[in-house]
Amino acid sequence: MPITEVEGRTLKLSHLDRVLWPATGTTKAELLHYYASVAEVLLPHIRGRQVSFVRTPDGVEGQRFFQKRPPAGTPDWVTVTDTLRNSGEVMDQVQVNDLATLIWAGNLSCVEIHTHQWKAGSPEAADRLVLDLDPGPDRTVVDCCRVALLLRDRLAEDGITLWAKTSGSKGLHLLAALRGASPGSAGAYAKRIAQELEVRHADTVISRMTRADRTGRVFIDWSQNSARKTTAAPYTVRARETPTVSAPLSWREVAAARRPERLVFTIADVPGRVAEAGDLLAGLLDPAAAAPLPG
């Protein structure tokens, strides 16, 4: 079993040659290399937040499960914090605050990293707004881009700046930095905006959960702002057929989108994008970007 040292932490790495993505032959070693390559831009977006993982110990075509509580054998140097849930339950969850923890999690085949829209210890204070754009039947991520531009302009009217990233699956995630908000107020605002767009663009947008009504439309999922929900983190790998990434986009890329395949990025693509353009979501981390919700 290979032993390595990361930031002064000793890690035992296992089964590095295990194929996690059979369709591409991508191994656990390649997953770890990717996370190490993008840690500098990934960690600031998840540091201080409790995370949940999607684990695929036998690869993405095998068993998978959503891990909220700390995995068995979690080292004592991994930050674990508890939160009192609305149900009255106290739950421990891991924080991925450093490279050593990121590599430790990757070694457990924690392929996906999901975060709440609030910092650990402050579940009553939502510092992010999320709008999850999901294309219905016969729609693609290109249609999501058209809706994203509408949402960008609408939220700008309220003084809120949006940033975009692919979901790593079929759609887009739009993110904003908030101040003075709660999960409840953020969710109510997101719902109101989604309903407003549905009224204005009923042929292309839907805000209702019913799947039967989504054909030919883009669903604006406003419910991701709930305190009990998590969203795929920026730069996380997804447990899809191929190792796609939830990759930040520039608004120029969103506006120019014409072919869905041009907005699919894998672990082979993203480090180069980061080297060339840096973190396209860096503005989301600027305290000056945080905006209050309108009256």
TrEMBL record:
Tell me yes or no: is ATP-binding among this UniProt entry's keywords: no
Ranges where the DNA ligase D polymerase domain occurs? 27-280
GO terms for MF: DNA ligase (ATP) activity
EC number(s) for this protein? 6.5.1.1
Q: What UniProt keywords apply to this chain's record, in alphabetical order?
A: Ligase
Q: What domain of life?
A: Bacteria
Q: Which PANTHER family does its entry note? A: BIFUNCTIONAL NON-HOMOLOGOUS END JOINING PROTEIN LIGD
Put simply, this protein is called Non-homologous end-joining DNA ligase
- In which organism is this protein found? Actinacidiphila polyblastidii
